[in-house]
């Protein structure tokens, strides 16, 4: 908008009148097919400040900013995912160690009475053979 203050449509706007806005440039920042932001620049000193070259340069810069913000968000998300993976890996290793210790203890607890039972059976069987031999 080259001269907002003297524009038929926007010149009556209370903000335009209060701030004596002359030049206005506004355009969307687009990611894919979505508008993610709106760039709004104004100048109260001069009319026709935002010529075509400035608009083109501003749009290019705005797109770079959008891309940089997207990359920063993706990097942050990647860091969070890596931290969660580290925590999950640590928890899985601790669970595996606990399982191994439990199985070792249970094996010992089962073997001790089983050895007694096997020993008792062997004793009874050898006693039976001694009795049948006599």
Describe this structure in words.
- By secondary structure, the protein is of the alpha+beta class.
- The chain has two helices and two strands.
- It has helices spanning 14-19, 52-133, and strands at residues 23-31, 34-43.
- Strand 1 and strand 2 (34-43) form a beta hairpin.
- The protein starts with 13 loop residues before the first helix and ends with a helix.
Query: What count of helical segments does DSSP give?
Result: 2
Distance from first to last alpha carbon: 122 Å
The arrangement of helices and strands along the chain is HEEH
- Give the percentage of residues in beta strands: 5-15%
Contiguous runs where pLDDT drops below 50 for at least 5 residues: none
| Broad structural category | alpha+beta
Main β-sheet description: 2 strands, antiparallel
The rough form would be described as rod-shaped
Give the rounded overall mean pLDDT: 88
What is the number of E strands?
Answer: 2
Our Rg estimate from Cα atoms comes to: 40 Å
**Going across the major beta sheet, what is the strand order?**
1-2
Helix content: 55-70%
């Amino acid at each position: 908008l080259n001269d907002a203050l003297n524009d038929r449509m926007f010149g009556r706007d209370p903000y335009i009148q209060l701030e004596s806005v002359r030049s206005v440039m506004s355009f969307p920042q687009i990611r894919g097919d979505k508008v993610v932001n709106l760039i709004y620049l104004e100048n109260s000193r001069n009319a026709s400040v935002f010529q075509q070259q400035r608009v083109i340069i501003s749009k290019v810069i705005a797109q770079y900013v959008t891309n940089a913000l997207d990359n920063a968000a993706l990097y942050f998300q990647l860091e969070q995912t890596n931290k969660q993976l580290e925590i999950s890996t640590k928890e899985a290793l601790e669970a595996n160690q606990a399982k191994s210790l439990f199985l070792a203890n249970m094996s010992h607890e089962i073997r001790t009475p089983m050895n007694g039972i096997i020993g008792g059976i062997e004793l009874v069987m050898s006693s039976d053979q001694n009795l049948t031999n006599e």
